[in-house]
TrEMBL record:
The organism's taxonomic lineage, starting at the top: Eukaryota, Viridiplantae, Streptophyta, Embryophyta, Tracheophyta
UniProt organism field: Senna tora
NCBIfam families named in the record: F_box_assoc_1
Classification via InterPro entries: F-box-assoc_dom_typ1, F-box-assoc_interact_dom, F-box_domain
Protein known as: F-box protein interaction domain protein
Domain F-box associated beta-propeller type: 37-213
Any single Pfam family the record assigns to this protein: FBA_1
Top-level lineage group: Eukaryota
Length: 285
């Protein structure tokens, strides 16, 4: 069952948009607690959540720096390497995974085509900008990025790039040059040449665009318009070929928030997850 909000173009009513997209969040939902680990976790833990289509199981990946106590000084901790673990929801046990080098500083976890994808730091190099974890092979792999990145000399030309899923495809969105916001879609999964630029928005117009991260949420009428989340706690609506945009501030938010597109499900979490799990309601926390 697929639920999809229908909006009439041109989109002008900010209240209508926010009511449609935020109403479900107010109604609450369900969650389960992940099992703890015996390893010592210190510092940043990179993670991701995805679905293995062949086994029909939900998976959680976490990557972190493992530390052990110094035998000569109990107050001192020693680095014990980079660790990657996978949990199959309902199994209850974390499993060590990852063959070869386990990457670091992973951002924008995205589940597409039965695999998890992350965006790496630009300092890793444009040919290694995207990393994938294959649920089937249980290992990390590099993944092809757009051809335009091959012609960029120096990572200083890349600013505020985000990655995610739009209409079932992997995307990269951000400033690929000084004064334009580009949205690239991978039309054919895993094929480098299939990366296609579907939006090229000029930022140097009379209505100046904000600097920061842009994340597309919804594309309307086969790309006629797009709704994007901006890292300054707002939503931006832009029509293809137009020079301006509509900015929707979300009032009443006291802290930073993020917006994501998703399809609501009527299937209880207890049914969706295999195994014996304890399901909690968000209002019970």
């Amino acid at each position: 069952m697929k639920l999809e909000a229908k909006f009439k173009l041109p989109l002008r009513d900010a209240k209508m948009v926010l009511d449609k997209m935020l109403d479900e969040a107010k109604n609450g939902g369900e969650f389960i607690r992940l099992p703890e680990t015996r390893k010592i976790l210190r510092g940043t833990c990179d993670s991701g959540f995805g679905y293995h289509e062949k086994t029909r199981e939900f998976k959680v990946i976490r990557v972190y720096d493992n530390y052990v106590q110094d035998p000569a000084n109990a107050k001192k901790w020693l680095s014990n390497g980079r660790v990657a673990e996978m949990l199959t929801l309902g199994n209850g046990t974390w499993k060590s995974v990852g063959v070869g080098i386990v990457p670091f500083d992973l951002r924008f976890p995205t589940s597409v085509n039965g695999a998890l994808h992350w965006l790496r730091p630009l300092s890793a190099g444009t040919e290694k900008l995207i990393v994938r974890f294959s649920f089937e092979l249980e290992r990390f792999e590099t993944f092809p990025s757009p051809l335009c990145l091959d012609n960029i000399h120096g990572v200083s030309e890349l600013r505020n790039i985000s990655m995610g899923e739009l209409e079932g495809r992997l995307y990269l969105c951000g400033k690929f040059d000084f004064d334009h916001i580009n949205l690239w879609l991978m039309k054919k999964y895993g094929v480098k040449d299939s990366w296609t630029m579907v939006y090229n928005i000029d930022m140097m117009t009379a209505q100046r665009w904000h600097f920061g991260f842009y994340r597309p949420i919804k594309s309307f009428n086969n790309g006629a318009a797009i709704l994007m989340y901006h890292s300054l706690n707002c939503l931006i609506y832009h029509e293809h070929g137009g020079c301006g945009f509509n900015l929707f501030d979300v009032s009443g938010t006291q802290v930073k928030f993020e917006a994501f597109a998703h399809i609501p499900s009527l299937i209880p979490l207890k049914v969706a997850v295999k195994g014996d799990v304890e399901v909690h309601n968000v209002h019970s926390r």
